Here is the input.
Amino acid sequence: MRPGVYRAVGRDGQEYLLHRSASQQLGWLTDLQRDVLRQLADSERSEESLRAQADDRAGDRGVAELDGLLRQLRTGGWLHITVVHDRPAYTIEPYRPPPDPPTGEPAGDLVLSRFAVIHRSGADLLIESPRSWCAVRVHDPAVLTGLAAYLVPRAGTDAGSTPLATRIRSDLTWATMLVGTPGDEDTAFDLRQWSPHELWFHQRSRGDGIPDRPFGRTRWAAGRFEPLPARRPSFAGPAVDLPRPDLDAVRRTDTTLTGVLEERRSIRRHDDQRPITLDQLGGFLYRAAGVRRVAARDGVEFLTGPNPSGGALDPLEFYVAVRLAEGIEAGLYRYDRFGHRLERVSGLTRTVRRLVDAAQSATGSAEAPETYPPQVVVLLAARFGRVGWSYETLTYSLILKQVGVAYQTMYCVATAMGLAPCALGAGDPAAFAAATGLDPLSEGTVGEFIVGSRPDRQGAT
Ligand SMILES: Cc1cc2nc3c(=O)[nH]c(=O)nc-3n(C[C@H](O)[C@H](O)[C@H](O)COP(=O)(O)O)c2cc1C
Here is the structure.
């Protein structure tokens, strides 16, 4: 029986199987069926031994009851099924009810799906695909030899006609790990649009992707690793204290929410004759990213402010690569969201220039090939462990959602301040790692945003 399955009995005596992702009504079970269910929940059983038991107990009627139950369990995707040839070859581990198995030999050539991934899991190899309803746990390396035959398209029977080869072919076709070619993966837009890593990420970061694995705020690292503090250690260099904007004054004079939303535009050119000032940069960062409240519970620190965040664990750090701004030297800085200061990381080195150049080239397009150097590039870095300590499986998707939240807040604040904002879709994470010396596995860029003075809005604050 698949892990995490419970049996429940309704008031009328009907039995159900329950899992956090699914349930199935089994109906009224006989004593024999209930006993088989209990045995399967307990440990692995061979079909032969169950059949012999049923035969002993109730003859043909017992075997028919057993077959009826096994059919329900198989079609419901409740059983892990191990195929044994001399020794255990592989186990099919369903995540959800399977489609009907294919009948007969598949027509045409077969090939390994481009979405299938094989990796070690304990002492086994796991074959998985985001297109599949199951994983295949391979115990016997001979199975992989059989599978490797399908690295190039070939007629099914060319890869061997031993009982094991035939069974692997049929099971892996059923599991959408072997696919017909030419087939949907080559021709259908719905599949062509997905690169394997994107479909993997999409499917796994949604709750129903792998219902048998931990998902969500499990706090898996509690007791194993220390949670990361909300406030990151400072860089050693000198820091510039930023003036705090007078929020009461801003409240009185600010444009309305509707004004901001309706005026907001991406503006990719800045006015170098009147560059953004340090006051403006400070006001922009405070209003878009400053931390307003911090709390702690069970050793975990939470923060909030203008930006909502999953679990109040906002992991973003705001770095600014300044090419040109009044009142501050060009270079790379980290914005201290708690202390409202800019900590100097470096001057405008070649590596920091690379960050500015990458941002500039991201603003080019076939329709508008002319680009302009941005005055300030906001580099959004995530301290992955802030979210990864508490969450499992969807950590990275939460972080990217956080980037979306920060982008919109920065657009709104920049628009309200008469600045020129533009979000960017890609940057140069290697240049960021080189410029900061940070390990990209623990803190790396996940978003970029440019901001500067607006060419048509002189004197706006
Ligand atoms: C997630 C995201 C990524 C973006 N990436 C880029 C980019 O790489 N380069 C660019 O010039 N604009 C980028 N933009 C800005 C969009 O091109 C812009 O929002 C869109 O064309 C609509 O124009 P508007 O913002 O003026 O309404 C991005 C916007 C978002 C929200």
In short: The chain has a mean pLDDT of 94. The CA atoms of residues 110 and 156 lie 6 Å apart. Residues 265-266, 268, 362-363, 407, 422-425 surround flavin mononucleotide (CB under 6 Å).
